[in-house]
């Protein structure tokens, strides 16, 4: 701790902890992705509405950032055409974002188009050399992890702290991990994001996390005050959903299921995360699917989580005799069937055709996926559903939650500065 304190103080003295321009004007201490309802494709949703000039400025900045994120390179004229903003406005916004080291000119020019007049334009892209983002993941069973990323989401460094149980995670250990990760950042810190398994409100307060045993913990404000940096706290499944959408194979209409200590889900509709009345959209784990008697930690019987979470399935594997592969397959087919039943109504209700399932390979494998796919498609195929619903394993590695959290930090800070 002491060594980290020294590193932190040194970093602060060198200016590494000074937040992005305009940080002092932050009004909100944290914003969950779900509460924002943001989507990279929905940034112009205020078009046509009466918006104050600040909203217009923020929307233009985010629209330009999003069209370049993570690895795009376009001329100002191309940006102007793609987002329908005048050349003059694009040039003005880009100039300010270059001054803030959010965008940069890459020294290359766009190809001239035969038959089209006009000089070739210099390409702009995300500046990956100046700002760093700190992303933490509190959703693992025996470790809490953090990474340093650049503005394109590329991971530059990582740190972790081992824990005996998720219930050992408290605010002090999260602050300690933040310090560790910040000390490894080569650039200035753009913002901090923390992914939490549970319900998070629009201020970054963790309303309820059964895994961590937290209730009403104002994590975003604590971290923001401790480090004098913008902080966003978000649901872990929503973070993973965003990673699958923007760094993986996800479609704009996507249901993401995370099978881990519990069952989490995130829903993306037309590029925007669905949040719901209580920021709890996707909390499907404690929905009763079958009339079975499996007791659940919530007090009910037959919840999806009680029979489908990793500890429950592994406990059933443990009851089998050694080498009983048929028994194992039966358990996984049963789990796939339950999941398929649980998802069918949502698929029809929302017209979603892409379902990504994330979890350990001994559970989320072809046996479970194939049965879930059969059940979903048997129950939902119709004339208005011309192609089968794609039910697939999410192939992302262990960094999925942290990479998704990086996109939450970007949206949070770009809206705040
Ligand atoms: Zn339950």
UniProtKB/TrEMBL annotation:
InterPro entries linked to this entry: ATPase_NBD (IPR043129), ROK (IPR000600), ROK_cs (IPR049874), WH-like_DNA-bd_sf (IPR036388), WH_DNA-bd_sf (IPR036390)
SUPFAM superfamilies, per database record: Actin-like ATPase domain, Winged helix' DNA-binding domain
Gene3D superfamilies named among the record's database cross-references: 3.30.420.40, Winged helix-like DNA-binding domain superfamily/Winged helix DNA-binding domain
Family that this chain belongs to: Belongs to the ROK (NagC/XylR) family.
Protein name: NagC family transcriptional regulator
Source organism of this protein record: Alloscardovia macacae
């Amino acid at each position: 701790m002491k060594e980290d304190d020294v590193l932190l103080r040194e970093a602060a003295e060198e200016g590494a902890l000074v937040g992005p321009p305009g940080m002092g004007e932050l009004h909100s201490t944290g914003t969950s992705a779900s509460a924002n309802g943001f989507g990279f494709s929905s940034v112009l949703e205020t078009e046509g509405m009466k918006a104050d000039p600040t909203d217009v400025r923020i929307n233009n900045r985010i629209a330009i950032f999003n069209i370049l994120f993570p690895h795009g390179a376009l001329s100002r004229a191309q940006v102007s055409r793609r987002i329908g903003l005048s050349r003059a406005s694009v040039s003005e916004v880009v100039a300010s974002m270059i001054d803030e080291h959010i965008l940069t000119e890459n020294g290359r020019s766009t190809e001239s188009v035969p038959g089209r007049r006009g000089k070739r334009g210099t390409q702009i892209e995300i500046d990956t050399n100046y700002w760093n983002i700190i992303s933490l993941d509190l959703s693992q069973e025996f470790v809490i992890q953090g990474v340093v990323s650049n503005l394109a989401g590329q991971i530059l460094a990582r740190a972790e702290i081992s824990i005996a149980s998720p219930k050992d995670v408290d605010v002090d250990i999260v602050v300690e991990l933040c310090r560790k990760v910040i000390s490894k950042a080569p650039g200035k810190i753009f913002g901090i994001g923390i992914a939490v398994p549970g319900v998070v409100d629009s201020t970054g307060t963790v309303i309820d996390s059964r895994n961590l045993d937290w209730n009403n913990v104002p994590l975003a404000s604590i971290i923001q005050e401790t480090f004098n940096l913008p902080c966003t706290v978000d649901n872990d499944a929503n973070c993973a959903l965003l990673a699958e959408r923007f760094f993986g194979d996800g479609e704009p209409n996507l249901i993401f299921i995370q099978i881990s200590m519990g069952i989490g889900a995130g829903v993306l509709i037309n590029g925007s995360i669905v949040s719901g009345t209580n920021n709890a959209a996707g909390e499907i784990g404690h929905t009763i699917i079958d009339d079975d008697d499996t007791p659940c930690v919530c007090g009910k019987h037959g919840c999806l989580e009680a029979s489908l979470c990793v500890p429950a399935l592994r406990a059933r594997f443990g009851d089998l005799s050694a080498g009983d592969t048929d028994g194992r397959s039966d358990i996984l087919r049963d789990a796939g069937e339950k999941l398929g039943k649980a998802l069918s109504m949502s698929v029809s209700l929302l017209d979603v055709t892409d379902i990504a399932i994330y979890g350990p390979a001994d559970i989320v494998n072809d046996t479970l996926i194939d049965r879930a796919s059969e059940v979903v498609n048997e129950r939902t195929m119709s004339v208005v559903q011309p192609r089968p619903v794609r039910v697939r394993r999410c192939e992302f590695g262990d960094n999925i939650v942290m990479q998704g959290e990086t996109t939450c930090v970007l949206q949070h800070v770009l809206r705040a500065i």
